Amino acid sequence: MTECSHVPVIKHYKGVCHVYIDADADAAMAEEIVLNSKAHRPGVCNAAETLLVEKSVAANVLPRLGKRLAEANVELRGDKPTHALLDGSGIKLTPASADDWDEEYLDLVLSVKIVDGIGEAIEHISTHGSGHTETIVTGDPAAAKRFQTEVDSSTIFWNASTRFSDGMEFGMGAEIGISTDKIGARGPMGLEELTSYKWLGVADGLIRK
Predict the structure, then answer these.
(1) In a domain, 1, yes or no
(2) What are the angstrom distances between the C-alpha of 138 and each of 42, 75, 132?
(3) Would you say the pTM of this structure is higher than 0.85?
(4) Sign of torsion over alpha carbons 21, 27, 33, 38
(5) pLDDT for residue 8
(6) What CATH code is carried by the domain that includes residue 47?
């Protein structure tokens, strides 16, 4: 057990990955990214498990996206604002419990939360994320920069599917695993030894085939 270790341990840890649809997101692009992130291969660690939607665009985005997810047999678990928005739409939706936000489903299940802006999205990810992979869908470079700077995860995409967080996709060859840890230094330390890094990806609606 890593909890009992007396030395740093590299863990191939769980992927509670998020897609955040920002106020300035292209709705059609967001649909494709969310569908690919969740339904392309739901049983892998870089599949999305939680969808966060900025409240100002939720009414425009969620009804159509919810139907497309339902057509892909994705079970939705939503917060109260999501239920209020989709009530009467015919989309099957169950209430999200407190545990759902921390859950790595590895299945066709997606928790959905409407947030009051990018700050709440970042706070939610900080509280419930596993440090694996997150995506922001937005046409606003300032919002993308803030998200990629302030979210503390190993890989953060702008307008791309979470499914690209993969050693082979990054040109590394066969992947050993995806670490969500920051390994400590050994021996003499300078500034470089006191830093870690994260991968930042920028695209224009890229999804994985």
Answers:
(1) no
(2) 23, 25, 20
(3) yes
(4) positive
(5) 67
(6) 3.40.309.10
